[in-house]
Structures are given as structure tokens and as C-alpha cells.
Write a sequence for this structure.
């Protein structure tokens, strides 16, 4: 049976890094040198990998378009929401790329513009897919922190869970040339770096306070995803805001 690996879920969660790791090591699959939608490749003969985070909204359509009856496996990238909310993209250097309620669109004549679904809409779409029954074999949830902290262990998990064959190691990422169209989202080609809580940097204090104050459901999602057990972590941000007093900072997407 032909196969299709579909990478879809949260953007700025290591999707391009992971996709390039697959391009360098995965055997037996067609892996385009650019971000490609599942709908554009599911009808192609042979085994394919597609990577487009917003395909999470197209899963049902991809299943209906699967005229070759391929085995479809979904890999959903996840990351600490706080790090996603402070993430940057080279196409939008002067603003945060994803907000709780909007994300920048970087293609087309009017781009970049914050007109795409944000973190909360994407997370809701992931939950809908997990409950849909489209993947009775299960969905592979890939945490960014696990991928960068121990890439070879994740590679072994993929081998065991999905029956994939590899040549080489994820930890050797960057040894092969990376296509130009896949370099931009990486914000530069460099060795895999261990996960770091970038949201704790002083420059992001206002951003974190703003997003969690305006969208308190984010607290619940942090706990659901296993990144926090309670809301105590936010106390320093409350204290910082109280000490700072009123301020007129430009917030993203406001």
C-alpha cells in the first residue's frame, strides 16, 4: 500500500526543521524541496511527505481526496505556546509572527498581513482532528522540545511507530544542502540547538502579559499540553506589570 506522511499543526513549532531532517534521512518517499500541501500530492503515485501547518484545517478534505487509498499518517508538531507566541519569522522581522487569534500571511500582493488563523484556532482544529476518527491508528504528536533535545530518540520513535526506514541520523541535520525555499522559515541554517524558554527573555515580558491577559484560555492549554501544572509561573509577569505602571507599547495584531 502506498503511503502519505502529512505534517500539519502548529507553525513555528519546528515544522521546517523536522521536514528537512526527513529530507536528509527518510528512505523511499518523495519529499519536495518546498512546503507542499497534502491536497496537491495525495493523488500522486508512490509514497509522499507533505508539510504545511495549516493543512490541519484540510484533513477531512485530504481523506476524501485519497483516491489511491493510501495509508495516511498524520504528524502534528507541538511547542510550548509561549515560545510560539514570541516566535519571529524572517519574512516579518519587526513583529511577532503568531498571536492567539491571528497569524501572518506571507504570500500574495498584500502580504505580510495578520489574516490567517492564530494559535487558538489551530489548536482547536488539532483537537477536532484527534476526535474525528480519521486516524484509527493514532496521530504522532511531535513536541519541538523533544525533537531538538534528543533528535535521534525521536527518529527511533518514528521508526517504531510508523514503520519508517532511515539512512543517517536526525542529529546530523544540516550536513546536506537545504533548498533555498526551506531556509527562510529556519531563520538561518545552523546546527540543532537545545530547547530554551525564549519567552522568559525580558524583551518578551509585555508580549506574554498581553496575550495571556487577553486570552486566558491559554493558561488551560499550557496545562493540557503538560508545560505547566498551575498558573504560578505568571506571578512574576503580574508583578512586573504592576511595577511598570501604564505604558503605551504597541502590541501585535492590536
Amino acid at each position: 500500500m502506498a503511503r502519505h506522511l502529512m505534517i500539519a499543526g502548529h507553525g513555528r513549532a519546528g515544522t521546517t526543521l523536522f521536514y528537512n531532517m526527513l529530507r536528509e534521512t527518510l528512505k523511499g518517499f518523495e519529499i519536495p524541496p518546498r512546503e507542499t500541501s497534502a491536497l496537491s500530492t495525495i493523488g500522486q503515485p508512490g509514497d509522499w511527505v507533505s508539510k504545511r501547518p495549516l493543512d490541519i484545517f484540510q484533513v477531512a478534505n485530504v481523506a476524501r481526496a485519497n483516491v489511491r487509498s493510501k495509508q495516511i499518517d498524520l504528524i502534528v508538531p507541538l511547542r510550548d505556546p509561549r515560545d510560539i507566541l514570541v516566535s519571529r519569522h524572517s519574512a516579518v522581522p519587526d513583529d511577532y509572527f503568531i498571536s492567539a487569534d491571528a497569524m501572518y500571511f506571507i504570500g500574495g500582493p498584500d502580504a505580510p498581513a495578520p489574516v490567517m488563523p492564530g494559535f487558538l484556532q489551530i489548536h482547536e482544529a488539532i483537537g477536532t482532528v484527534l476526535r474525528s476518527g480519521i486516524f484509527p491508528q493514532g496521530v504522532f504528536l511531535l513536541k519541538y522540545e523533544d525533537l531538538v533535545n534528543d533528535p535521534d530518540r525521536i527518529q527511533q520513535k518514528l521508526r517504531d511507530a510508523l514503520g519508517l526506514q532511515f539512512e543517517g541520523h536526525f542529529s546530523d541535520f544540516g550536513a546536506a544542502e537545504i533548498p533555498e525555499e526551506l531556509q527562510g522559515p529556519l531563520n538561518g541554517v545552523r546546527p540543532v540547538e537545545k530547547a530554551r524558554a525564549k519567552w522568559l527573555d525580558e524583551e518578551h515580558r509585555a508580549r506574554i502579559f498581553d496575550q495571556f491577559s487577553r486570552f486566558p484560555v491559554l493558561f488551560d492549554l499550557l496545562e493540557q499540553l503538560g508545560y505547566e501544572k498551575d498558573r504560578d509561573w505568571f506571578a512574576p509577569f503580574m508583578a512586573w506589570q504592576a511595577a511598570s505602571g501604564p505604558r503605551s507599547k504597541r502590541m501585535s495584531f492590536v
About this structure: Confidence is low (pLDDT under 50) at residues 248-254.
